[in-house]
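dumping this here before i forget
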Amino acid sequence: MYNMSPYSLSRSFRDKPCRAVIYGRASTEHEAQVKALQNQMQWYDDVARFHPQWNVINRYIDQGITGTQVYKRDAFMQMMEDAKQHKFDLIVTREVCRFARNTVDALVCVRQLAAMGIEVYFVNDNIWTLDGDGELRLTIMATMAQEESRKISERSLAGQRVSREKGVLYGNGNIFGYTRNKLTKQFEIDPDQAETVKMIFDLYDSGMGETLVAKELTRLGRKNGVGKVKWDAGKVSKIIKRKNYLGYTVYCQSYSNNYLEQKRIKRDESEFVYVKGGFPQIISEEQYERCNAIRRSRTKRLTDEKGRTRSLVFSRLRMCGVEK
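structure:
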């Protein structure tokens, strides 16, 4: 038989006058989700009218934020801080998946709140966390919400694979050297930016390093992707590495470590997936390969006699006796 929660029915704010707050969340900033969030707020107003004993004193709203990690949600974290100050007695939220899609997060937060005498009411799930069976029912619903997140992640990955096969382009299309046609959604060459791209490859091909190329672009008044005459070695190197300039769409440059943490991890260049035909070509294959062979040789890393990894440039300075 299930052991009853230490939070007995008598502690629940089910029928008691209390200070209540609303917590709402929309997972994206898309127009449909924004409208859904507005409807969600109207729905909360309707719910509050059926509970005249509530004094609704605040609303905490996260918009465009995932539910799998609470620390990424500013409004949620502020609500937890305010709970520590005993600013309210009851949190009202629509359903468990709005509160958290991570089972551990949901239980940890609810237990922290219960220890402070604060209850969470999940309206659609009809769960009052200070009820005797509140934690058991919450565990079941939170596990189901987490499982739904896993399925969404799998569907998303499958959709990405299909998109790659069809040559669908990801992102907003902000790639220096190109503009994206609003009607066709395809990339087209931006003549002025493409000229700068060719200039970068020509200068680098002639023997200049990234820093010298950046200084030359600045001297010539060439604008970067945001329209400013501001260049550095990093921007130059990024352009030299881009295989888009050969007409390739590049996929799988990073991945999410798992569906709960959703931390983006950059892949090594050797793991990128290239699909020919997504972009008009700006640079020849021969020049691209020459420049990237130079880049790789300049960034080659060596291991010293102590097993430490150092850049080739640093090692040459050390041999010349300039290491401090």
